[in-house]
Amino acid sequence: xxARILVFGGSFDPPHKGHQELLxxxxxxxxxxxxxxxPAYHSPWKKDSSASPEERFQMAKLSFPEAEISRLEMRAxxxxxxxxxxxxxxxxxxGSEIHFVIGSDLVARFDEWKSPLELRKLARWWTALRPPKNxxxxxxxxxxxxAMPEISSxxxxxxxxxxxxxxxxxxxxxxxWIKQRGLYGVSILPRLKKILKPERLFxxxxxxxxxxxxxxxxxxxxxEAALAGLLHDAGRSVPISEMKPxxxxxxxxxxxxxxxxAYQPILLHAYISEDISRRMFGIKNSDVLKxxxxxxxxxxxxxxxxxxxYVCDTCSEDRNYSEAAELRELAARNPQEAFLECLNGKIxxxxxxxxxxxxxxxxxxNSLIL
Length: 370
Description:
Strand content: 5-15%
CATH class of the largest domain: Mainly Alpha
Structural class: alpha/beta
CATH topology of the largest domain: Hypothetical protein af1432
Helix content: 40-55%
Number of helices: 18
Number of domains: 2
Shape: elongated
């Protein structure tokens, strides 16, 4: 009988107990002579990774101590496709039978992979008993014999960011490693506690929780939603009297800066929040930074994450005006209408004060309804 090689591929960003259980179950059924875990250098399905390739490699070593953790993709230092991995393994291991296991979240999109027909010929495919959220498991996939825990790396990253207890979801050695290196924003909340007043911190947490909860409906990454929500008001750590010199020193581009400072200086905090998020908290994700920057005045071409933070800032759980609860309910079922209603509400509120109104919200409104 041909020697069996079990290959487990994925981003492992971070690895969790679902990954461990899947590999364990696959080994029990396949009885491989060799078990390889291959962390992706940069998954074709992900626009970015929260941890570096080397960090994910080290976490995989902690999570799968009995497996061979391969640098096959790491050495390429580029986006590597699974077909390249399998071709190389076949060449280096002639006559071997390769069994490739993947998480169920990737299964439904198998036909979109590069060279799917050849992939089916080069390996036998395995996945978890739990079906993918979208689509069905193709008939050629083998199923491991038991159900897997309901854990996703995306949700786990958001849990870590929000300081929630994840001890039951991941290997304690990996969790300690993450905390020591400050991965996945684990240090952000403690640092925010030092610079924001309690009521402002409570609001920020409320926005992060709501944006995370609505992320699925709004079709945005839950970690990015929580991160933008948590940091959107970091600029409120700067007193209003110091906002103008801060913006001037940092050369921040604020639309109609002089008029904003003269009539509504508090609006400067969104641009300061983006700057603080980048400099103090090391945020590089452009979508997150744009959502922070545009959460007050908005922008003429706002993406889904920008709109989500705009809405959640308007109707978070700590908001006590009468329409807030209705807006939250609307945001959970109709993102477009919720955004329009929040924009409408802000314009009406500004009109009621009979003061200067920044033209940007008006321009956004006109662009949406005309």
